Every structure is written in C-alpha cells, then in structure tokens.
Amino acid sequence: MTTLIRRGRRAEESQEKRTDSDDSGKDNDDDSSSDCKDMRLTLMEEVLLLGLKDKEGYTSFWNDCISSGLRGGILIELSLRGRIVLEPATLRKKRLLDRKVLLKSDAPTGDILLDETLKHMKATDPAETVQSWIELLTGETWNPFKLQYQLRNVRERIAKNLVEKGILTTEKQNFLLFDMTTHPVTNTTEKQRLVKKLQESLLDKWVNDPHRMDKRTLALLVLAHSSDVLENAFSTLPDDKYDMAMNRSRDLLDLDPDVEGNKANASEMIWAVLSAFNKS
C-alpha cells in the first residue's frame, strides 16, 4: 500500500515568500544568486535527497555520517538566513572551531528544525562552538543536562517536508523482521536538477576559487562530502569526467578552513562546519 501526500505548488511558493521576507542582509544577497529560482529546498533537504535511493526510499544502512551532516546543514542554513554568526575573531580565538556561535536573530524561519534549533541556541548560556552544536544536536554528549538539545527523528522530519513538497512519497516496506517507512523519489526532475547543479559546479562551471562560487553550492558540496553522499551525484558521469569531478572536489575540500574562512567575503560558517568534520 502506497500513500502519497502532496501540497499545492502555489501554497509552497507562498510559504517561501513569507519565509524569505523575514530574511535580511547577507541572506538577501544569497537569494539573488543565479539559481534562486530553484531554491525551494533547504540544504538539509538537498543532502537527504542526494542520499536517498530513488526506488527504495531510504539511505544506505552503512552511512553513519549523514546524521551529523544534516546537523551541520542546519547551522549553515541558519547562517545563510542571517540568524546566527560566529563571534568576531580575536588573537586568542582566531581558529574557527574556537569561536562561539552567536544568535543574531531569533525570528522564525518557517522551518520546524531551524526554529527548534534557534530556541535551543536562545536558551543556551554560555554559547557553544560549531563543533559542540553539531554534537549536541546529534545527541553525542556525555552531559545528561544537555541531552535536551538533541534533535530527534531528523531524517524522517526532513523526508516529510519533501513529501509535502511533492518530491517524495511515503510507503511501508517489509524487511522480514520489521516494517519500515520509506520515501521513494517521485519527482525525479528535482533530484536531477540537484545532481546537475553539483556536476556543473565541478565541471562546466568550475571557477577554481571557492570564494567565487555560489555560497549555497559550496555549502552543498561541503555537506554532501561530510554526509558521504557526494559521490552519488557523480555516478552517472563517464569515467574521465567522474575522475575530474572527484579530483576537483577533493582539492576544494582539502583546503585549510581557517585560512579560507578568514579571507574577505568568506562565509565563515561553511568553513567552520568543514573544519568540525575534518577534526571529527
């Protein structure tokens, strides 16, 4: 038995406009990028969509990275929307991972996971670092008083958002000993657009400079790599282009986050999240 839940495109676009009207500053600059017309998915939704098997509707059982990758996506998404920033660099706290995450605005975003994270950050004193927040949001802490910050059922909640947007459907599958809710891809056009965007960023539209790259595309490359789903986007490429895309992504992700994050007009949160994953 397959159930399919859809929400009208007009309603979704209306919600997007209401959400965007809350954003300001840097976020407005990001929304004016060349692919803003396609930007109806959050970074977390894009990462999960890349990781899902199209027909089966679930991520690889061997992937133990995607949970933390999705939490990193929440931090970057909040930063791009102008809700959080890193504290200013000082002589003592110059490294990205030493600097605390500061709440810039607690205005609702319209996304339940982002808003839940904002509430946690507002209630946290003293502030935490990027690496600490990723660990807290995944529940990887030994402090019983901080278990309340764990975001639960993240993958399922993101999948439900994608079902409402008409990109996934919901099914029940039997795996011998248990039943499992799965979310096969129904809107393959949206996923193909996403894959094409990543492929072009490393092939036809390669700029060889992360600071000239669209910020959301750079963020998606970082998060897809950290979630171990980046290779999924290159699986359809011929061997020569596959090798080129993998080599260029490796060169990009091997850059020193502290050096890149301190350059003019750099998106510090993207590099801080990469630094956190490099250290873990």
Automatic annotation (TrEMBL):
Q: Where in the cell is it found?
A: Golgi apparatus, Golgi stack membrane; Golgi apparatus, trans-Golgi network membrane
Molecular functions (GO terms): phosphatidylinositol-4-phosphate binding
Give the membrane topology, semicolon-separated if more than one.
Peripheral membrane protein
- Function summary: Phosphatidylinositol-4-phosphate-binding protein that may play a role in the process of vesicle budding at the Golgi and anterograde transport to the plasma membrane.
Q: What does the subunit section of this Swiss-Prot or TrEMBL entry state? A: Homooligomer.
* Residues spanning the signal sequence: none
The Gene Ontology biological process annotation of the record reads: Golgi organization; Golgi to plasma membrane protein transport; Golgi vesicle budding; retrograde vesicle-mediated transport, Golgi to endoplasmic reticulum
Ranges of biased composition (kind: Basic and acidic residues): 10-27
The Gene Ontology CC terms held by the record are: cytosol; Golgi cisterna membrane; Golgi membrane; trans-Golgi network
Q: What Pfam families does this protein's entry cite?
A: GPP34 (PF05719)
Classification via InterPro entries: GPP34-like, GPP34-like_sf
Q: Where is this region: Disordered?
A: 1-36
The name this protein carries in UniProt is Golgi phospho 3-like
Show the Gene3D superfamilies listed in the entry: yeast vps74-n-term truncation variant domain like
Keywords from UniProt, A to Z, are: Golgi apparatus, Lipid-binding, Membrane
Please give the organism: Pelobates cultripes (Western spadefoot toad)
Member of which family?
Belongs to the GOLPH3/VPS74 family.
